[in-house]
Amino acid sequence: MQTSPGTAATILPIGSDADLAWARHQVRQAAAALGFGLVQQTKLITAASELARNTLVHGGGGHLEITPVAHGKARGLRLSFVDTGPGIRDLELAMTDGYTTGGGLGLGLSGARRLVHEFRVDTRPGGGTTVTVVMWLAGMPVPRPGTG
Amino acid sequence: MSVPSPGYAAPVPVLALGDVLLVTLQGDLHDDTAERLRQDLTRRIARHSGGRVTGVVIDISGVEVVDSYLGRVLAEIAASARLLAARTVLTGMRPAVAITLVELGLTLPGLLTALDVERALELLSGPDPAGARAPDAEGGG
Amino acid sequence: MSEHDAAPGAAAQQVRAFLERRREQIAQRWADAPLFRTVFTVSRDEAVEASKAVADALAAVAASGRLEDITAAGYGTVREQLGRTAAARARTGCSPARIADEVAALRAPAAELLRAEFPDPAAPRAQECLLALALLMGTLRLVVMETALSTGEDLIERQRQQLLEATTPVIKLWDGIIAVPLIGTLDSARSQVVMENLLDAVVAERARYAILDITGVPTVDSLVAQHLMKTVAAARLMGAECVVSGIRPAIAQTIVHLGIDLGAIVTRARLSDALVYALRRLDVEISGPVPAVAGRP
């Protein structure tokens, strides 16, 4: 994955309910600007909503970085959710459908993963969590490593 | 969870049509608004002493994104309505939202669904199949 | 981008001068090379003109000194010119590798002319110039190769998309009943298109029932079954019911073998059975015997 030159990242704070709504709005704008179709837009915004809520609820807040990316001819959008919270102790468990510590449906991480093309979690106990997802524009040859 | 939050989120109006409550959701819903709607509806179903509420129709044709939080709130509304002997019908879900929810793993099995409000009211005026599960068991021949 | 040590500016400039001076002769020879000859079959003049354009472009690149840079400005014209030529070759079934070979074959005639420029072709200066030309032609080969590959990709992608759209029609059978007759293999991309088309039609036709007829689908693996179930689930969320018809005995067995539970899905043997089911649920009265329309193509 490489960042196309001259495209700056948008950085948004995630600290409240209103920030979640704003993040969804900004992801929609960015996805629409890149030419994503309605279904892809909806999937990406939903994934962003799940992950931003994770950042807020479990990470104690943080920020979202929205970056347009390019790989050969393929165009896409990368979203990074960064917090400095307690980290995830058992990542495998956290990725399981239905596992929850926050009173939700436990679909946050595992569900979001199914909505995007690339998904990566970097976490350390006590060292915060960064979840990075990438969605590629449909109709392009997509570089697609195992997404499970 | 029940702590009132700073008033950014505008409340959702609930309309009473006879013994049916109609809610129309629009645009991007804040978590707070959804949660408050859940409490509102549950209270109104329980309190509606004149004639009982037999159904709740939630129209989401104006909603562009339903994530697992809103999904959970909708499922909880249906579950509490059920306890108070009312059925909940979700109507007007957009194709993109439906595809996303299925991919997310959220199929809302406890909720009845209809294409639009008219059909939802039709559905509610029909017999209440025991258990009020997915629509499979009703109608026919 | 870096310049090559063995081709310092002087040699590159000499090659540029050579390309400009011998433009006509080079073009005449190239016009007879397979790359141009096979594309411009009608008029040799056109082949000569195309060859000249390539020679000019190479001269421009040589002038810039960036012999090994496939992004050099001069290659822009070559890309377009040879891109069209290569695309024409590709359409006749020529592989990118073969096209690259044909481009490589342009080097020999040009090198021959260049060698003739020097009284002693073995002199260091002559060797430098020949090397510079070789570099230039090598880069040209890369440029054409890249263009040919991406043209092919674009073409395939466009055709694939058209095919997807064309092979998944949604038909309105009755007020409130739509059907998608699926024919051919269902892969992931096509299943996605089927799902989106079907759900859009549910909205557009206010359809309460959607029939997915898989009579024409040769095999159903677990992925396809999963897609069918997702489509059914998504339609239900919207307030429509899906009926899957045309599950042939062999496919039914496969589904059982794969351990897939289609229990939550309404299935009927034939499309006509599914239609009858939907009509009855809509309280449409059917008089006379239920039509026995064949379910097979």
From TrEMBL, chain A:
Q: Which domain of life is it from?
A: Bacteria
Gene3D superfamilies to which the protein is assigned, alphabetical: Histidine kinase-like ATPase, C-terminal domain
> What residues does the Histidine kinase/HSP90-like ATPase domain cover?
39-139
Q: Which protein are we looking at?
A: Anti-sigma regulatory factor
**Can you name the source organism?**
Streptomyces echinoruber
Gene behind this chain? rsbT
From TrEMBL, chain C:
Q: Where is the STAS domain?
A: 167-278
| Keyword check for Transit peptide | no
State the UniProt keywords alphabetically.
Phosphoprotein
Task: Output the superkingdom of the source species.
Answer: Bacteria
Looking up SUPFAM superfamilies in the UniProt record yields:
SpoIIaa-like
Keyword Phosphoprotein among record annotations = yes
* InterPro entries for the chain: Bact_StressResp_Reg, STAS_dom, STAS_dom_sf
- Record protein name field: STAS domain-containing protein
Organism whose genome encodes this protein: Streptomyces echinoruber
